[in-house]
Amino acid sequence: xxxxxxxxxxxxxxxxxxxxxxxxxxxxxxxxxxxxxxxxxxxxxxxxxxxxxxxxxxxxxxxxxxxxxxxxxxxxxxxxxxxxxxxxxxxxxxxxxxxxxxxxxxxxxxxxxxxxxxxxxxxxxxxxxxxxxxxxxxxxxxxxxxxxxxxxxxxxxxxxxxxxxxxxxxxxxxxxxxxxxxxxxxxxxxxxxxxxxxxxxxxxxxxxxxxxxxxxxxxxxxxxx
Length: 225
Description:
CATH architecture of the largest domain: Sandwich
Number of strands: 15
Structural class: mainly beta
Order of helices and strands: HEEEEEEEEEEEEEEE
CATH superfamily of the largest domain: Immunoglobulins
CATH topology of the largest domain: Immunoglobulin-like
Strand content: over 45%
Largest sheet: 5 strands, mixed
Number of helices: 1
Distance between the termini: 119 Å
Helix content: under 10%
């Protein structure tokens, strides 16, 4: 009799464990940010925000942890991020919620992007029958290149004094009024001085040639009085 009772208790305990680990379905309903078919520039940062739903049959406790996978891909690279966040509030079956998965994300390349988000389950319910279903958006990132400008340029004490609007890594060429190149140097800073002994008073041209092919030309005066 005791053996039968023990066997029955084992069965009931086993059934209780199976009930506790019953798979739970969670769905990514939409990606609220970044917006689909939108043009972003590379200087901007974007929060990755999703709306998701607990489709049950279990409730998700506020102390549980939801496992998200974020994939960011363009034509040349794919980046994966595992993001684990607590719901912070009880999610009953059918409840939906918005959450920010990544803050201030930057897309550094000029490209067409695809961003997909899926839920792999939670700490309590790791089996999720929708784990392979992702919600995706497509958008474009355009480089917002800042053009180099000359903010200050003058000649004094056999030196060219300069300041640009941004740090540059470029070749500097100096030409006289006839167009002859008389000086060349490398610049890897935003502001500074270049040693230059001007052969005569007059107008000179300084041309900045950056690695991306952009050029900036400005004029300065030399007075040897």
